[in-house]
């Protein structure tokens, strides 16, 4: 029996979103599951575990595919439209050696156009018995307000069906911190009830069972479990017109689609609600039969994945770079993709000319619209590939890649700080002068590009320091962010990035940067001091005091920590957590 190493996001351990698929795999394979935390770090233990496995399956973590392909492991990627639908073509080309399983038709078609191997599957849960279908003598709607920040909120639901329903239950548990803006009270002609956190899934199901109308809570979905569960109950479903919602719901056939980007207008659903609900149930009943019949094909697709040729590369460095670049920012991940074009040719088996051809006519996102940011990024990489194809010496290709990457990384920050840069003419040119080929050639090779990053990191940090000293917090943060993208291991730079985010009032981004620093320099007294300052600013007095105590524990000579603790000794304690 082959062994699968199954990777998933840490929060799915609680939600159980992938549990149904893991159980399917266990019918034929030995499965070990590794949950990786977004807030945490990644270690070489991952590579050790994959080395002992026959296959690697990545649930929504498609950005890690090149790591395991380079290791020579058959890799199966299971991306989700809501997380990866907008990724650039380079993202998919770097993972083109993996087999994919797509739950979204839109994403399936897109990756196949890029030459990736993809199996389209359609998941349907088991439907309720026909005798348990809901009655529609009254319309009772259920809405979980998960992403009000995306525009699907109570006000939208009220506009769409408020004039039709007899009752509406709103589950007030958002996926993200959300403070509702002030609004004028509305006159409602239906009974409105609400709920907050529920002890168990059975309590959620009990609320759902009292309703016969369901409003899908998110703009788009990876699979759309909540939507499908409602369809399986025979409920009338309303959903935003994007994948995968519109891949299961045919408008006014087995549900209703709306467009949250258009002006909302009242819908007349009462007369057709029961018919649409019945059609939704019929869709799931037939779909579930086909889903069960497709399971042997899915297992065979996974089990027969070809073994890719391993690539001589520093796998630990590649893993760490992919991880920190992906979670740092979109720009940092784009930079990671661009500096690994050479690796892309090795993993995909494509030449530079073939990569060029693959990118020439594909500048669309998953929904079929022109994605200007991805297009610009891919065009830049296309120019880079064209230049590289004309070079014969591999080291010259790598030097060209590094030069273009450094220039791209600093363009945005140079524009923002142009006026201030004029006063720093002795220093500023250092930030834009690419390292000479002679310098690059003398440096050691690191995962497919010459390691010219260290001097570049020093220059980026120097430019960040210059802007920090004149209180240009945003400009400094741009340079520090580029520095950690180039070298994620430097905890001290993460601290500086956190400080700039904190000064600019971006407390959420500051907390993320400090968390990254804590993974790298857990004994830094200054880091705990800065965490204390952040908690103090956000009103968490108790947490701030604890951080100052940690700062003093790691360095008894930290006078700032002593001063802060003395102020707490002289003031009443705040109970904020």
What does this structure look like?
This protein has 4 domains: 3-98 and 306-390, Rossmann fold (3-Layer(aba) Sandwich); 130-285, Rossmann fold, CATH 3.40.50.2000; 402-508, Alpha Horseshoe (Serine Threonine Protein Phosphatase 5, Tetratricopeptide repeat), CATH 1.25.40; 523-577, no CATH class. Helix content is 51%, strand content 11%. It has 28 helices and 14 strands. Helix 22 (453-469) packs antiparallel against helix 23 and helix 27 (541-554) runs antiparallel to helix 28 (559-569). By secondary structure, it is an alpha/beta fold. The strands form 3 sheets. It has a 6-stranded parallel β-sheet, sandwiched between helices. Strands 9-8-7-10-11-12 form a 6-stranded parallel β-sheet. Strands 13-14 form a two-stranded antiparallel ribbon.
Residue windows where pLDDT falls under 50 for at least 5 positions: 361-398, 411-453, 573-577
Average of per-residue pLDDT values? 81
Number of strands: 14
Query: Structural class, from secondary structure content?
Result: alpha/beta
What is the CATH topology of the largest domain? Rossmann fold
CATH domain class name of the largest domain? Alpha Beta
Q: How many structural domains?
A: 4
Q: How many alpha or pi helices? A: 28
How far apart the termini lie comes to: 50 Å
Strand content: 5-15%
Global Rg = 27 Å
* CATH architecture grouping of the largest domain: 3-Layer(aba) Sandwich
Read across the widest sheet, the strand sequence of neighbours is 2-1-3-4-5-6
> Fraction of residues in helices?
40-55%
The biggest sheet amounts to:
6 strands, parallel
Describe the global form: globular
């Amino acid at each position: 029996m082959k062994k699968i190493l199954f990777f998933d996001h840490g929060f799915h351990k609680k939600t159980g979103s992938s549990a149904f698929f893991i159980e399917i795999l266990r019918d034929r394979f030995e499965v070990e599951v590794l949950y990786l935390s977004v807030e945490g770090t990644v270690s070489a233990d991952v590579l050790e575990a994959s080395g002992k496995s026959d296959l690697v399956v990545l649930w929504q973590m498609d950005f890690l595919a090149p790591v395991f392909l380079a290791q020579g492991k058959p890799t199966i990627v299971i991306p989700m439209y809501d997380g990866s639908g907008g990724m650039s073509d380079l993202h998919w080309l770097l993972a083109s050696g993996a087999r994919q399983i797509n739950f979204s038709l839109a994403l399936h078609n897109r990756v196949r156009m890029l030459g990736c191997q993809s199996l389209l599957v359609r998941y349907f849960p088991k439907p309720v018995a026909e005798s348990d279908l809901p009655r529609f003598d009254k319309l009772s709607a259920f809405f979980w307000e998960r992403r009000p920040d995306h525009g699907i909120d109570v006000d939208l639901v009220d506009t769409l069906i408020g004039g039709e329903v007899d009752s509406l239950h709103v589950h007030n548990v958002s996926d993200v911190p959300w403070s509702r803006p002030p609004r004028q009270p509305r006159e409602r002609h239906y009974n409105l009830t609400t709920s907050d956190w529920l002890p168990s899934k059975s309590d959620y199901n009990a609320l759902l069972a009292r309703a016969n109308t369901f409003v899908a809570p998110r703009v788009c979905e990876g699979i759309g479990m909540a939507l499908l569960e409602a369809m399986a109950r025979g409920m009338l479903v309303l959903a935003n017109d994007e994948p995968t919602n519109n891949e299961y719901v045919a408008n006014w056939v087995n549900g209703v689609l709306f467009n949250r980007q258009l002006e909302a207008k009242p819908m007349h659903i009462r007369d057709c609600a029961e018919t649409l609900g019945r059609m939704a149930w019929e869709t799931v009943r037939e779909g579930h039969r086909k889903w069960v019949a497709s399971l042997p094909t899915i297992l065979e697709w996974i089990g027969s994945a070809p073994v890719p040729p391993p690539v001589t590369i520093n796998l630990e460095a590649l893993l760490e770079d992919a991880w920190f670049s992906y979670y740092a920012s979109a720009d940092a991940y784009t930079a990671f993709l661009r500096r690994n074009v050479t690796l892309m040719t090795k993993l995909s088996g494509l030449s530079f000319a073939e990569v060029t051809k693959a990118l020439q006519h594909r500048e669309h996102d998953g929904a079929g619209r022109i994605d200007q940011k991805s297009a610009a990024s891919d065009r830049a990489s296309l120019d880079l590939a064209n230049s590289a194809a004309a070079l014969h010496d591999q080291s010259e290709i790598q030097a060209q890649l590094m030069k273009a990457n450094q220039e791209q990384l600093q363009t945005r920050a140079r524009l923002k700080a142009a006026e201030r840069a004029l006063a720093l003419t002795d220093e500023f040119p250092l930030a834009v002068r690419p390292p000479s080929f002679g310098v690059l050639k003398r440096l050691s090779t690191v995962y497919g590009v010459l390691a010219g990053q260290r001097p570049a990191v020093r220059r980026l940090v120097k430019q960040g320091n210059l802007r920090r000293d004149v209180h240009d917090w945003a400009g400094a943060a741009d340079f520090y962010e580029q520095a950690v993208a180039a070298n994620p291991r430097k905890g001290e730079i993460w601290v500086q990035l956190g400080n700039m985010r904190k000064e600019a009032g971006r407390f959420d981004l500051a907390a993320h940067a400090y968390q990254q620093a804590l993974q790298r320099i857990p004994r830094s007294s200054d880091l705990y001091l800065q965490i204390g300052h952040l908690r103090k600013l956000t009103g968490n007095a108790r947490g701030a005091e604890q951080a100052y105590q940690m700062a003093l524990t790691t360095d008894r000579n930290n006078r700032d920590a002593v001063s802060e603790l003395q102020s707490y000794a002289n003031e009443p304690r705040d109970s904020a957590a």
